[in-house]
């Protein structure tokens, strides 16, 4: 029989230990129950869903709304300390990840043609060129930070070129997005939001004066000619494409390389047979995906999740990491196995919000990993694994740096 859980809230879940090794903590929560009330680093009381079957169901449940612009009361009531709240700039959140159909359908349709398998495959020569240039520039002696040398600059260059954004602004974009996504202090987040909005607004005005054939121009024309994007949606869409367009691949390359280096038998197996690469990348995403959680949802009405009824107008957080290590779906889930059947993993999401750029991330990963594995047979970690640091975020699951030796 379905029951609503008590009002008890678990504190301290997302602490420093979680950032270092979320899987151990999530395994305990998953075993203890399907849903738990926890407190996020920014002071929200949310319902955390951890089991694979429940996660898949919730990700596709229309009673779970993504319309954050209509959720002010839900957010305010969920705050542990409402008196400390400070409104974030909404010019960056009116994008398709924060909308429900039919708005989500309209917004996704505007960009979906740019991410078809055919269009992405046409980009292969340019992505190979970018990757080869970055690898050629890496020093063969000493320690190389693979995040700074390859994992970040390759995908940010690709998405900037797709959008028509100058790549000389990529370091600023990286700094602003990192503050917006991972920082819980409004005193740091708000200036980053303002800087990003000003930057994107300037690009939009420049492209209005000098239109080209890039995606930015196409989105502007959808705003100006067809009236399908308002100004806030336009800025928010560009922001989303910039962030999602590089974060997925940055962490696929970083987390995936680390998994290979910590499992030399799997690294040797992949080197001996690169036809296993596609399956290996799916295992990388299952084992240590780019995103720890899906973005926030809230219940439009009471929803039964694994026998627990979450009341209406409640914030919900969905743990992709926990679902992908659920032993009921993936036997021996903490073992990294590039031959594993990863069918059903949720590393790229599920349902109508399934990652629109997954084909691009897979192509970038294929090119980068094949170059690394073929070109550097002695690739190895330059520091003990326990000295590696992870980004302080429950949304983004990635390394701050990955020191390696190439030779």
Automatic annotation (TrEMBL):
Keyword NADP: no
UniProtKB keywords: Heme, Iron, Metal-binding, Monooxygenase, Oxidoreductase
Pfam families: p450
Coiled-coil regions listed in the entry: none
PANTHER family (alphabetical): CYTOCHROME P450 YJIB-RELATED (PTHR46696:SF1), P450, PUTATIVE (EUROFUNG)-RELATED (PTHR46696)
Recorded family membership: Belongs to the cytochrome P450 family.
Full protein name: Cytochrome P450
